[in-house]
Amino acid sequence: MSARNSQQGVALIMVLLAMALVVMLAAGMVRQQSLQVFKAGHYLAQQQGYSIALGAEAFARQVLKRDFEEDRESGVMADSLDEFWAMRSAVLPLDENGVAEVQIDGLGGRLNLNDLVSARGEVDSLASGRFERLLQVLGITGLRVDALIDWIDENDEPLSSYGAEDGTYLMAQPSFRAANQPFVSVTELRLIEGMTEVYYQQLLPHVTALPDTGIGINVNTATGPVLQSLHENLTETAATTIIAKREESRFEDIRAFLSLPELSGTGLSATGLTLQTRFFDVVSRITYDDRVVNLVSRVFRSAEGEVRTVHRDSGQKNRITREPYIFSGE
Asked: What is the DSSP letter of 113?
């Protein structure tokens, strides 16, 4: 082979290598572009879904405001489980084959973890007693109320031998410290000394973490175990009977509740009891463009009927549990 032919062969190989490199770069750019297009489309769909969820939240706020106005017109300020907002979830069809699902969960029938310690830093004996009885009713023996109180109070000294402060939590793996402030979320319970996942799931339907304290328990929406927690002599049978009676006719006066035969002789007072609910969770699930967006908005309804959003959480799933009521939009 001549030198000329050899040089031509090398040049051809270099051209082919260059073409292969160009093809590889082009293919990579196409893949990268496709990925960017997918990400942009996904982000846009998520943002659209979130915007729809905010609309669903606004819809729920209007429902709660209208409920308040109807109560005021009737002269009976009471919230119960037979009201529209509490009975069904709402299904709102959207354009382009989408759907918005909305459920309103009242939190007035649960024990507020933050009631355990007053704004002055003192243990609330009424709330503490209720939590003690709730644990007994649920058969929770490995968790103590003192540990819950120590999580909230500002000092670093355990309330008792059943309490838990930094000295306990710093030995955990990984280590952490007690919050020494009110609960922000019920999920913090998972960090409490003595808590197990079984205990957590047992407590979840009966407790909440609200920023305002002393609001009281709504006797029209309280769960059976919460009713039992009101007094040590309230049995499961009595609580079941009370729930059956309020299903027939809700309580429209605290005195009517306290005069029930099931409460006779208990000496239960109206302290810490109410007929109204102030805090609600608005649970939204938006299915849009083959994607699902979840949003849980905690809202507060004031004594004047104004409804405002306290915070939002997009990390909770499977919260919609009620039978749907479908709005046709016609």
From this structure: G
